[in-house]
Amino acid sequence: MITLELRSALATLATADHLLVAVDFDGTLAPLVEHADDARPLPAAAAALRSLAGVPGTATALISGRALDSLRAVATPEPETLLVGSHGAETWTGPNAEPLQLTPEQADLLARARAAVAEVAEACAGCRVEDKPAGVVLHTRSASDGDASAAVEAARARLGELDGVQVTDGKRVLEASVVHANKGEGILALRELTGATAVLFAGDDVTDEKGFAVLEPGDVGIKVGPGETAAEFRVESPAEFAAVLEHLHELRLAAVGN
Ligand SMILES: [Mg+2]
């Protein structure tokens, strides 16, 4: 259900001179699924985001923990959609955007982080390792609760010995990155790039809290699903969030006089 308070905030947001609509993918635009490759945006949400991108003075972006390649494969974003991947370590802002380049030191550190996480995963039934351009992820979704927490703690200890590795917790994942970035920095960069005077940001996971933390008065932060949050608003599910996007699109069209 979209609360009256959220409706009112969206109505004000829709009148912004330059609006940025930046959304997380998994658990926000797309329902959570067992296998990450199977995730797809809800058709209503994808359509509403595409429509918003077509409104003058309105920019759209996906801000995901996924590597950019993985995000593109599941989200099939419109060419005008800006992309922030790997929690901010990778960005795509158009055809002239520079790809991520690791320094030799970062590449060496990444190799050591990968080796450490791989060793932990080998000793854990149901654990899986995912390589990303600037990091490595330990997935524990298919492990027992006991094995999962033991593996996460072991990996955290091993990674803690590597100077310069940033460790981030997510839902049944532990992620190590050699590029220090988070979704908050991603939003700040997008705000600057697009000249946005107001931002909508929505996300479902703990890593999205860094995004909510950089929002300003007049912005709208929406937490999708349960869990503690600094976001001012909450919806229950990706389906409800799709309705938010549809409503915002109507308001935005009316506000810019189309
Ligand atoms: Mg998410």
What topology does this entry show?
Layout: H1 4-13, E1 19-23, H2 43-53, E2 58-63, H3 68-75, E3 82-85, E4 90-92, H4 104-122, E5 128-132, E6 135-139, H5 145-160, E7 166-170, E8 173-177, H6 183-194, E9 198-203, H7 209-213, E10 220-224, E11 233-235, H8 238-255
Parallel strand pairs: 1-2, 1-9, 2-3, 9-10, 10-11
Antiparallel strand pairs: 3-4, 5-6, 6-8, 7-8
Helix pairs in contact: 1-8, 2-8, 4-5
The structure holds magnesium ion (MG).
What this model shows, in words?
The protein has 258 residues and is α/β, with parallel strands linked by helices. The protein has 2 domains: 4-99 and 181-255, Rossmann fold, CATH 3.40.50; 104-177, Trehalose-6-phosphate phosphatase related protein, domain 2 (Alpha-Beta Plaits, 2-Layer Sandwich), CATH 3.30.70.1020. Helices cover 38% and strands 20% of the residues. It has 8 helices and 11 strands. A 7-stranded mixed β-sheet has the order 4-3-2-1-9-10-11, sandwiched between helices. Strands 5-6-8-7 form a 4-stranded antiparallel β-sheet, with helices on one face. α2 runs parallel beside α8 and α4 runs antiparallel to α5 (145-160). The radius of gyration is 19 Å and the shape is globular. The chain starts with a helix and ends with a helix. The model has no long low-confidence stretch (mean pLDDT 95). The protein binds magnesium ion.
